Amino acid sequence: MGEGVRIFFLLAAVVGGPLLALMVVPTLAKRFLKMSHGSREAPRADIAELDDMSRRIAELEERVDFAERLLAQQRDAALPRGKS
User: CA distances (Å), 4 to each of 9, 11, 41, 51, 65, in order?
Assistant: First the structure.
């Protein structure tokens, strides 16, 4: 049983590996060439998009901080007061 599994994976690697490479390598090459020979406007658009995403992430961080403070206040209010 173990030998059959080894043969299956060996055949899958021998046949599937090159097939995968034939599908993936040209796609990656096209993307690389498109990025290296693209227009100069594309990086500016990418920078603007990154700036927008950074702004949105900062807003989300503020919202999470606010929510954490509210939850901490509710938790503290719900805890029983001990005798000191």
Answer: 9, 11, 55, 54, 55
Whether residues 50 and 65 fall in one domain = yes
Q: What is the token pair recorded at 32?
A: 């690389």
Q: What is the DSSP letter of 40?
A: T
Looking at the structure, do residues 15 and 52 belong to the same domain, yes or no? no
State pLDDT tens for residues 31-44.
Answer: 888 776 655 555 67
pLDDT tens digits, one per residue of 44-80: 778 888 889 999 999 999 999 999 999 989 888 888 8
Pair 9, 26 in one domain: yes
- Chain-centroid distance, C-alpha 17: 25
4 and 18 fall within a common domain: yes
Sign of CA dihedral 54, 60, 63, 68: negative
What is the model's pTM? Answer: 0.43
